[in-house]
Amino acid sequence: MSRPTVRLAHLPTPLEPMDRLTDELGGPRLLVKRDDCTGLALGGNKARKLEYLCAEALATGCDMLVTGGGPQSNHVRMTTAAANRLGLECHVALAGGQPRDETGNLLLDRVLGTNLHFLERDDYYGIEDGIVDLARRLEADGHRPFAIPVGGASITGATAYADAADELLRQLDGASVDCVVVADGSGGTHAGLLAGLGSSTRVLGVDVGTRPDLDDVVPRLAGETAERTGRPAPAGPVIIDHDRFGAGYGRVTDTGIEAILLAARLEGIVLDPVYTGKAMAGLVAAVREGRTGAAETVVFWHTGGAPALFASAYATVFTES
């Protein structure tokens, strides 16, 4: 089914083997879906969602995009880049107050010209409330804002990943995949993949500590996305690993560091400590704990995020490794 989009991403993204990591872990066969290669201000999974979300925004006659996230939000960086491409303003509710150092994604937000509005609250619901409040204030000033939830985790955003599942299946060219592993932040990517892959493939979402209601939102959003796209409702359990985010969102974990170094030193693939490092830690744990079979095929869906490595909060972790 054709859906309205604007062209923002480099698609299809590569599907590559990770043979050395496969050997290191003793199986299963590992592949990586390179959504870090989508382009749009250094890439990431949000480019797919923004193709759909921005088409919806333009259809409403908006003159600006409004969203929000944490200080190292990939979604904020890429939403601003999309707005720039389309000639729109972008205003962002950013959690946690004014930071001391503007490095990593936050530095790129400044380069891109993001209009930053700092929130004192740093919890998920505080950011969502901040987005709504910011959009209302801008509307009162005579603007036509289009509000996008944290991570683009709406039905429209998740639809992009239902269609991305079709892209993966085309690249597999008839070969089967037993499991897809993805970072679970706001839940939209996981939900879209569930809707797109159906019951034939397990989708393991690795909770990175963004929102506390993933167990509720992922199946609900997957069902709504399947209905919108004319697919069967996803069947079977929703699998979320809640054991990898450590002390909370954005906090470094030992298993995340190990996973980042494994991917970098065996495959030359760069992960980040906020999202994909923890997702890879979830994949490694699933293999070591026998939750994936040695004869299976597993796809790691790389959602991007490398700019966070250059944030002052994380850089010293790796210079000391």
Description of the structure:
This protein is α/β, with parallel strands linked by helices and 321 residues long. The protein has two domains: 15-44 and 153-319, Rossmann fold, CATH 3.40.50; 46-152, Rossmann fold. 43% of the residues lie in helices and 15% in strands. The protein is built from eleven helices and ten strands. β8, α8 (214-228) and β9 form a beta-alpha-beta unit. α3 (74-86) runs parallel beside α4, α6 (155-172) crosses α7 (188-197) and α7 (188-197) crosses α8 (214-228). The protein is globular. It starts with 14 loop residues before the first strand and ends with a helix. The model has no long low-confidence stretch (mean pLDDT 95).
Quick check: average pLDDT?
A: 95
Helix content: 40-55%
| Termini gap | 48 Å
Discrete helix count: 11
Major sheet description: 6 strands, mixed
CATH topology of the largest domain: Rossmann fold
The parts where pLDDT drops under 50 for at least 5 residues are none
- The share of residues in extended strands comes to 15-25%
Query: Based on CA inertia axes, which overall geometry fits?
Result: globular
Alpha-carbon Rg, integer: 19 Å
Oligomer: single chain
CATH class of the largest domain: Alpha Beta
The strand line-up of the biggest sheet is 1-2-10-7-8-9
Overall tally of domains = 2
Strand tally: 10
The CATH architecture of the largest domain comes to 3-Layer(aba) Sandwich
Order of helical and strand elements? EHEHEHEHEHEHEHEHEHHEH
Structural class: alpha/beta
